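Worked Example 4.2. Consider the chain below.
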Amino acid sequence: MRVSEANWFQVEEYLKHDDRAVLPLGSTEQHAYLSLAVDSILSEKVSVDAAAPLGVPVFPAIPFGITPYFMAYPGSISLKAATYMQVVRDVLDSLYTTGFRKILIVNGHGGNSPVQPVTMEFMTDRPGTRVKFHNWWNSPKTWAKVKEIDPVASHASWMENFPWTRIEGVEQPTQRKPYVPFDKLKDRGPEAVREIIGDGNYGGLYERSDEDMNALWSVAVAETRGLLEDWS
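Applying the procedure from the previous section yields the following structure tokens:
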């Protein structure tokens, strides 16, 4: 259940028989011709779709992440790493205080990965808690499905182009974009990054069929649900 569609009485009743929760992590950053909120949309939706049959609460995605390299693209927002890690820790502490003990973090943005040590510190400070950190898009089964469909896939390419991340009335380019020179991105500031990657797609087709995307989504949802079900 989406926490945004529940009240506190319902959550309290749930906690009488279960202590699992899902916390999606997103970002607000350029995704070429797709929504600036792609990472938040996808992390929350895959969480909701995975948790629905289990009745596990899904909290709203944290909408901002660590993305300093995209700050030359209007609409992108980046938090300092220290700020972001403190926000996540505060959220985890709040979940613990109100009764949750098993928390699945579903991350939609690679730049948020530095927060993983925070989960270890949290579990050290809060004995009896379990936290899993799940990059939904490159987890083993989902990434294998991406490669099966089309091995040329990256940020803002077809692999993030779902019906729910598209902007109405915006047409996608039809060509396959060559991979950007990733090695040149490692030591460049935001303006130089924009010069190198242009529209924001890191490489690959901009769009594939809904059949392909639905097949990929089914794998991602099932893999995420498996993590919610198995805490052994």
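The chain has one domain: 3-229. The longest strand covers residues 20-25. Compare this with Example 4.1 before moving on.
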